[in-house]
Amino acid sequence: MRWMSIKILPIIVILNLLVSACMTASKGEHLSEEDKKIFQLDSDKRHEEFKKLSVEKQLDIYLYALTKRHPPDFEFAYDIAVRGREVVPFLTSKFIDEKDEGKQQLILFIFELMKTHCNIQLQEDEDLILVLKEKVSLMKNSFYKKLSKESIKAIAR
């Protein structure tokens, strides 16, 4: 059953992002033409080039791929997740600063992948779990709040 929820989560998030993308706009949703070239590469080369980028640039491309490309593309989430603990402080900061609850959920999805697919024991980081829970408790959108709580449960197990 748990595997099924991981398979369905991207579909649910994509549908909501499509709706929210039509209704909202925020900074950081645009990539330079240079950065967009990564989408023109074949899959192997795309991942090879993506891995060379800073985590800041990776996150920008990942969020762009999910909020501005059609169909949305989750392929970069794992590439960020496998970087492990070195990117946790940056992702935590971006999660806290992000105003768009859909994007907050997408960042949580990376944390969830770290735990469930990369075997990174994030549940041991009590401060991280507390920060994530506090931010999620402030979410106004009940759908994103519910998804985010489920992600945090997976991360904290």
Describe it.
This protein has helices at residues 2-23, 33-36, 43-52, 55-67, 75-81, 88-97, 101-118, 126-137, 142-156. Mean pLDDT is 86; it is low at 17-28. It has one domain. The protein is 71% helix and 0% strand. The protein has nine helices and no strands. The two termini are 16 Å apart. Helix 4 packs antiparallel against helix 5 (75-81). With 157 residues, the chain is mainly alpha-helical. It is globular.
In summary, what is this structure?
The protein is built from 9 helices and no strands. With 157 residues, the chain is mostly helical.
Q: CA-to-CA gap between the ends? A: 16 Å
Along the chain, the helix and strand elements come as HHHHHHHHH
Summarize model confidence as the mean pLDDT: 86
Number of helices: 9
In which range does the helix fraction lie? over 70%
* SS content category: mainly alpha
Shape: globular
Could you describe the largest sheet, including whether it forms a barrel?
none
Tally of individual domains: 1
Rounded to an integer in angstroms, the radius of gyration calculated over CA atoms is 15 Å
Number of strands: 0
In terms of per-residue confidence, which ranges show pLDDT below 50 for 5 or more consecutive residues?
17-28
Portion of residues in beta strands equals under 5%
For the structure shown, list the relevant keywords.
globular; mainly alpha; 0% strand; 71% helix; 9 helices; 157 residues
Ordered list of secondary-structure elements with their pairings:
Layout (H helix, E strand, L loop, with lengths): L1 H22 L9 H4 L6 H10 L2 H13 L7 H7 L6 H10 L3 H18 L7 H12 L4 H15 L1
